[in-house]
Design goal:
It is a single chain. The chain starts with a helix and ends in an 11-residue tail after the last helix. The chain is built from six helices and no strands. It has two domains: 1-81, no CATH class; 86-127. The protein is 73% helix and 0% strand.
């Protein structure tokens, strides 16, 4: 899943913010993806494992910048979902559920579905 694409589509008012962050992350994303595929969450040959690990270590300062940028953006969207973006998130979810229901001929219990996705109730937020 491409989180930048999802955030840009679900929260179009903040698409520019997501795209600007992506421009900072993108140069080092290949290193991270290769590490994930060959040494992190997946397995590959020993030579590819050590090469991916070597590249990550060699470029760590730049990779750390990309990771920090992603974390900053992730934190923004995570906090904003329950407050600023609630008015955008729920309609986007309703639209998605409409499409899924139409395509698959099924019906969701929307309140329950939204509770499972843990869409925050801003009136219940504790600060």
């Amino acid at each position: 899943m491409d989180a930048i694409k999802v955030w840009s589509q679900v929260f179009p008012a903040h698409a520019a913010k997501a795209q600007a962050a992506w421009k900072k992350m993108e140069p080092n994303w290949k290193i991270l993806r290769t590490y994930r595929n060959r040494a992190g969450f997946h397995a590959d040959s020993p030579m590819k494992f050590f090469e991916a690990r070597h590249q990550l270590n060699k470029e760590w300062k730049n990779v750390q910048i990309a990771l920090d940028e992603f974390k900053t953006l992730f934190d923004f969207f995570l906090k904003a979902e329950g407050t600023d973006l609630r008015t955008e998130l729920e309609p986007a979810l309703d639209s998605l559920l409409d499409e899924v229901e139409k395509k698959h001929g099924t019906k969701f219990q929307r309140a329950q579905f939204k509770a499972y996705l843990m869409i925050p109730d801003p009136t219940a937020l504790v600060t």
